[in-house]
Design a protein that fits this description.
Blueprint lengths: L1 E2 L9 E5 L5 H4 L9 H9 L11 H11 L4 E6 L4 H10 L6 E6 L6 H7 L1 H4 L4 E5 L2 E2 L2 H9 L4 E6 H7 L4 H4 L4 E4 L5 E5 L4 H6 L4 E9 L3 H7 L10 H11 L5 E5 L4 E2 L3 H11 L7
Parallel strand pairs: 2-3, 2-5, 3-4, 7-11
Antiparallel strand pairs: 1-4, 5-10, 6-12, 7-10, 8-9
Helix pairs in contact: 5-12, 11-12
């Protein structure tokens, strides 16, 4: 672990899920031109380390630092030695500290969150993806609120302001909220009522603020039809059975999504000129 001093009281911690297999990223695509370094990392599936002048994950960490976060835990697999080596030996960290939690097997995002339980230390913490760049303005919203929350991204903003094509935005589901703006459930697709209303539809891109109660739900859920322990299922269990109230922070903001090789050039261009200070 290297970097800044311990966080000041009240400063939230951040857990970044970097254990994914990168299946889409590893898939060959003959019409995508990558430089040698990008191709090598893409072949490994470790999307967060794809070089764009510097590793993509540096931009994610820099955005967290800009939003006031000072303690970060990267959830990685035991085989991800290049991630650990880079942040322990190469990266110049002055505003944040970086710790590691190992998820021994890729059992899903809820299992990954459990791997970071000791890092959370009973405090509130943010969870986000390692292959999404959210921007500090969005992350700052989670540093201001004092209750569990999820960022609800307007579908129109993801399409028009970010790099998410219309056919991909459906992957992020639809957030069903009560009249007070609290999450009722994450739907696989918008309900007929949502469609009839004709208003903005908000989806989740795995950008959460939790307290320690989420760990109980992560332990209690069963495998999804995909054979994974999934974080949205844990959230739903906590809402339905544990009394969790989760505020939906609605934003119309871009997200840079690094899902496949076809995303790399566009994301790199959008990040050009972004100053990163860790």
């Amino acid at each position: 672990m290297r970097g800044a001093a311990d966080a000041l009281p009240g400063t939230f911690r951040a857990v970044i899920l970097a254990r994914g297999l990168g299946t889409r990223m590893r898939a060959e695509s003959g019409d995508v031109s990558l430089d040698a370094g990008q191709a090598r990392v893409a072949d490994s599936g470790v999307k967060a380390m794809i070089p764009m002048g510097r590793p993509f994950l540096d931009y994610v960490l820099g955005s967290l630092a800009d939003a006031g976060f000072t303690k970060v835990c990267l959830v990685i697999g035991p085989e991800h030695t290049q991630v650990r080596s880079y942040y322990e030996k190469e990266a110049a960290l002055s505003r944040i500290t970086v710790e590691f939690a190992e998820q021994l097997r890729p059992l899903g995002t809820a299992d990954a969150v459990l791997a970071a339980e000791s890092f959370a230390g009973g405090e509130t913490f943010v969870v986000l993806n390692s292959d999404n760049y959210y921007g500090s303005a969005v992350l700052s919203e989670l540093n201001r609120i004092e209750e569990p929350a999820v960022i609800g991204f307007a579908r129109s903003g993801l399409i028009e302001l970010g790099n998410v094509p219309p056919e991909r935005v459906t992957r992020f589901g639809a957030l069903d909220m009560d009249p007070d703006g609290y999450l009722r459930r994450i739907l696989a697709k918008p309900s007929e009522e949502m469609l009839r209303a004709g208003g903005e539809i908000y989806g989740s891109m795995n950008c959460w603020l939790f307290d320690s109660s989420i760990f109980r739900a992560c332990r209690e859920i069963t495998l999804s039809p995909r054979g994974e322990l999934e974080l949205p299922r844990a959230v739903q269990l906590a809402i339905d059975s544990h009394g969790l109230k989760m505020k939906v922070i609605r934003v119309r903001a871009p997200v840079l999504d690094l899902s496949s090789r076809t995303d790399i050039a566009g994301v790199q261009e959008r990040l050009r000129g972004v100053e990163v200070s860790l």
